[in-house]
Design a protein that fits this description.
InterPro entries: ABC_trans_aux. The chain has 223 residues and is of the alpha/beta class. It has 4 helices and 9 strands.
């Protein structure tokens, strides 16, 4: 017959074995590779239609749009960037679980072409512009340089999307390009949420705002 003290020792040993087994199972589970979180991918959505101008441009010549360049942001990056203005506004930080579907400069170029094409013919510098230029005396060249394209947090809860861009307009002549005009555009749109989705929406809105400003400026240049 097993004594009471022996039964207690055996019961305690059994409980200890169960605890050790449970710890081993948890450790094995934690060692398994974790399923990566899906990355959300954003674009600018549909472009807003421009209203017909009261005074259309005096020229119907095509506009050549050069590749959009980056001056203050990584050129070929598809990352969505933000700044913490209340901590260090000079540091660009990428969202790790979200990105653009294409490099940001390509998305900006596509949106500018979509919007500007509503009032004039717009061709990219590398997609068939050469045959078109043969029939144009002095075609216009538009060069865009992005200085800032980021979500800026004024506080942990408040942020806005910023697009700051420099536009240079020139004419293509037999002797090369002739400078015509230059303008800096700066658009800021509030973000509805303090995350990548809010960043994407506010930056798309800022891009549309700059596109409309650019369209007005080009018409003032008779382009």
């Amino acid at each position: 017959m097993i004594s009471t003290s022996l039964r207690r020792r055996l019961h305690g040993a059994g409980r200890a074995a169960l605890v050790v087994t449970a710890v081993a199972v948890l450790a094995a589970c934690s060692a398994l590779p974790q399923k990566p979180q899906p990355v959300a991918r954003y674009d600018f959505g549909p472009a807003q239609a421009l209203a017909a101008p009261a005074t259309p441009a005096a020229t119907t010549e095509p506009l050549v749009l050069a590749d959009v360049r980056a001056a203050g942001v990584p050129d070929a990056s598809a990352s969505i960037y933000y700044r913490l203005a209340y901590a260090d506004a000079r540091e660009l930080r990428p969202y790790t679980q979200a990105s653009w579907v294409l490099p940001a400069m390509q998305l900006i170029q596509q949106r500018m072409r979509d919007v500007l094409s509503g009032q004039r013919a717009v061709v990219l510098d590398d997609d068939g512009a050469t045959p078109l230029l043969r029939n144009t005396a002095y075609p216009a060249m538009l060069r865009l340089e992005v200085v800032d394209f980021s979500q800026v947090f004024d506080s942990a809860q408040s942020s806005h999307g910023v697009l700051r861009m420099r536009a240079t307009l020139s004419e293509i002549t037999p002797k090369g390009e002739r400078w015509l005009a230059q303008q800096v555009f700066d658009a800021r749109q509030p973000a509805t949420s303090a995350d990548a989705a809010g960043a994407a929406a506010s930056l798309a809105a800022a891009t549309d705002q700059v596109a409309q400003q650019l369209d007005n400026w080009l018409r003032q240049q008779n382009r």
